[in-house]
Design a protein that fits this description.
66 residues; mainly alpha; membrane; transmembrane; transmembrane helix
């Protein structure tokens, strides 16, 4: 008979559970770190868009009045 109790034939359920718990514990921290960067991106785009629109309107008004 083959020896199935060797290092290749067994799984360590406690080890995989520990790895899973470490993964679950690390996941919220990485999401929280990414959230502020993701929310600041659209704000910067919105501010740049508003500034560009004001410049265009001012240029059109200057050309129309000048």
């Amino acid at each position: 008979m083959a020896n199935t109790q060797g290092p290749q034939g067994t799984n360590d359920p406690a080890g995989s559970t520990q790895m899973f718990r470490a993964f679950v514990d690390d996941a919220p921290q990485s999401r929280q770190a990414a959230a502020p960067a993701a929310s600041s991106g659209p704000r910067v785009g919105l501010i740049v868009g508003i500034v560009a629109a004001v410049i265009v309107v001012a240029a059109v008004a200057w050309l129309a009045l000048g």
